[in-house]
Please model this.
Amino acid sequence: MEDQKVLDLVKELVNRLLSQPQNPNPNPNQPTSINPNSSSIDSNHFNQALRYAIRILSSRMTPSIAADEAAMAESIKRQLVTQGKSSEALTFADLYSKFASKTGPGSINNKWAVLYLLRVVSEDCKIAKKQPNSTVSRGLPAIYDSQLSDNSKVSRDKEVGWSGGVLVLSKDPDNIRDIAFREFANLLKEENDVSEEVLVRDVLNASQGIDGSYVKYDGNIDGYALSDSIKVPRATRIMIQKLCELGWLFRKVKGYISESMDHFPSQDVGTVGQAFCAALQDELTEYYKLLAVLEAQAMNPIPLVSENATSGNYLSLRRLSVWFAEPMVKMRLMAVLADICRVLRGGAMAGAIHMHAQHGDPLVRDFMKRLLRRVCSPLFEMVRSWVLEGELEDIFAEFFVVGQPVKAESLWREGYRLHHGMLPSFISPSLAQRILRTGKSINFLRVCCEDRGWADAATEAAAAAGTTTGRGGLGYGETDALELLVAEAAKRIDKHLLDVIYNRYKFKDHCMAIKRYLLLGQGDFVQYLMDIVGPELSEPANTISTFKLAGLLETAIRSSNAQYDDRDILDRLRVKMMPHNSGDRGWDVFSLEYDARVPLDTVFTESVMSRYLRIFNFLWKLRRVEHALISTWKTMKPNCITSRSFIKLQQAVKVKLLSALRKCQVLWDEMNHFVSNLQYYIMFEVLEVSWSNFSNEIEAAKDLDDLLAAHEKYLHSIVEKSLLGERSQSLYETLFVLFDLILRFRSLADRLYEGIYEVQARSTDDKKKLSRQLSNRSAEPGSWASEGRKALTQHASKFLSSMSQELDDIGKKYSSLLTGFISELPGKAAEGLLHQSCQGSFLDTILETMPSYHSVRYSVFLNLPSCTLSRVIVAEKVYYERQVSTLKSFEEVDALDVPPDINEEEERREQVQHERAMNISNGANVVLLVLKIYATIRSGSIAIAASTLDSLLDLMAGGILWFTHLSMKNINIYQYPIGKLRVQPVGIVIFAAVMATLGFQVLIEAVEQLIRNEPSPKMTHEQLIWLYSIMLTATTVKFALWVYCKSSGNRIVRAYAKDHYFDVVTNVVGLIAAVLGDKFYWWIDPFGAIALAIYTISNWSGTVFENAVSLVGQAAPPEVLQKLTYLVIQHHAQIKRVDTVRAYTFGVLYFVEVDIELPEDLPLKEAHAIGESLQIKIEKLPEVERAFVHLDFECDHKPEHSVLIKLPSSQP
Model:
């Protein structure tokens, strides 16, 4: 019904276009009836026009302009306005608005086509009006005109053209067009052996990888080609060659898919490879659909070739090239990817495909994105499973995380690693590392920690990232979502892992335990352990029982503060005996080990524990050396040897004994200084500093890798700074040689004192003491302890000489080794061992250790900064001055036991010399006073007067000092029970006070002269000569007396020397001031007097204060107390403890109070003898006037004397 209606409308349209009404209808309201059978319209002409119209309407030809309805309407309206038809333009605009607004049922959908048709018809009508003889009639071509001759047809054919967008054709009554078509077809058949329809079908077959009738696969050229024997135009052959490329590409893609899927069961194609093949197969399926459509179109004949050609769909080679444009692009990409992925798999395959997705063509980009979604789906599923579940679902080794079976302690370090060859390019290395660490943390928690709390952390991470823990949550192109998921999972799982390590497995406590026991930080435990295992370790290593050492270790733990540690920690501490040779001792092979179980053995691996063992061996050797030196000091205690026992020996033997003892003491002091500073450096500068840094890094650690790195840095710092690194290997070896030499010294010192004990016991004939002391010592064959005194003296001399020689040898070797060690420090030691910004360091301290080091000091100092150099030199000088002073004081104490060789003649001679010095000084003062009085009168200078006054005071001072000297010599023990030693400081105070007062008087006189502004009269030439002669003579005499008196040991004579020196200064200043005041400016003279007066006041005021303090009772300096303590400690073996040592001034010398503790059961007679002998010995010291010794049996009581009770009450 609809088709008939459309046909009727087309007929009416053609009829209207062909009709030419002769008489226009005057009444527009009366419709014009048009009959196709009317005589005015030829029936044949109408039928041909109708068929032509139907052909045009049924064709798919479209105009070459864009289908824009509004533009077409605007063009028509503008054309009407241009023609001056404004009213018609308005009418058209109104009609178009109604036409365009009509929608719904019965409306026209393709409004643009209607407008275009009307415009073409209108333009055609205009052409017909302008050309009355034209064959164009009402917009349709005059297809058939029987009245035209052939010539006219030809001429009109020449005039045929395109006008107004409509093809104008002339009538062909003789069917010339069909004849031309047939002739053209015959021509094509002559030029082509094969029709185009056949070639199109062969090309379609080739595009499916199937050989056609004429287009077949040629293995020589590896592609489809048309046989050369087939005659076709060159353009056709080229087109076929281009179109057949699609078949060659298809063959490659299909071959790759078939090969991969055929090998799947037996070879590792992989899930990513399977996904890639599936994606390619899906694309080929779409390609097959296109080929099916093209096959259908290929069944239609091609126009201009078949006699029955119609305007329906057909497929030519040119059309096929258009259809193949998009599949060609896709097939090329798939073929390229197939070639690349043939040897790739997994992440490498996904990365290679991703590299081709970076394309600017939207078609290629969308195609690759669709392909990568399928290909990367298995890879992203592996990432999700690894990050959230810790499962490595990688049967075909496609994932960039590779696992291998290892022990639990090696799971973190060796169990999993990144396979960079499988890392796709769209996943960055940093992201891959986080992915690796996250899954590794889950497996570590699950396998090593036996923890399941990670599952909750993974669920929280997935929720925070906005995804799920199920499959399919991630895909290609969602890199941000992947990074967010990995970041959230890593943050939560790593935090949970560290919480488990810190809290459940107490990682920090175990680190502290290793520091305490393996790094010997638990001082009381280490000291007790060394004391109780020392005898056992002194035995050969092959005779030592490990079980016995384990028992001793347990004893040390229970006897020290280590017993309060966690029992789990203590159970991990064990004794370990290292492999040993036949000559090794227990000290050489003993060590401690700490059992770090899973999961702590991830941090404390075997290699780490071996480094800890190396550090322990070094620290143990250092502690052993320190322990040996302490034991040597106990042997060397002064109260172990009584020098009185050797009084009866020859003087040469006594000298050798004292020499050997002194060498041993000095060498011990040097070694102890070095070991103590090294011990301090290791414990505080290395271990404690490294531990502090390690603790801070533990708090800042975010994952287990950070924790491992912090521990590795901590351990490396200890190894390098403790001279255990490769860089310090030579220093390490030298240091151990030094340690061995110190141990050798310990043995030598033991031998020395053993021999001394024997000599002491034999010389005192104390058999019981001898047997008691020798009972625990193995007597060597040929012992000389029981021989006669003469043999004893000979053997003692020989023994002491031998010991001195060996001590010298050890001392020289030790100094040489220490010098070499210090020389190598700046070049090979770790940075912490050297100077740091001129602050104190181990090297700076060690540089002060030995006098023998001075010989190479400057060569080593070249490597030090100037500030360190100056500080070391000053500190060295101060240190050795203090040490020499201490040693001299000790020598003085030791000499008290030896009866002094008193030479009365020499003492008398010294006394005469002292008196002579005082007499000369007094006589010189009298003579010089007379001369200076004469010079003062002749010159009238105040400065000379001040100098004369000083001479007068010298005379008075001499009288006072002479009087005090005589008073001290005349002692009346009934009037002055403790002597007149206080007379000397009292006299000095009086004399100094007078001197200061007179100086103040001179000061006043000089100031008054300046205020009065009265210059002194000028001196004559004669006066100047007298002045020069007297003052220079006085200065020379005083200088000579100062040189003579300053070397005296008498205190009064030294006071004279000080006075003479002061006179030299005053004479020179007075002479200069007087001469300059006379020659140039008069005020120089009073200023010189003022300077001398101020000098006199300040100098003698200090003297007054010094002697006044000595009368008050000032405490003695630490050096004196140290000397007294040394004397008390070494006095007698029965002295258990020294409670108090107090010394204070009471005049020139000290009063000493000593409280000592003796055994409670000691008889009074012996206790009194010890106390009395100690008092006598103390009072032998030259700086001590009187000593008080208090004996007690305990030291916990309050002091016997209290100063506070004698103080005046604060109450009114």
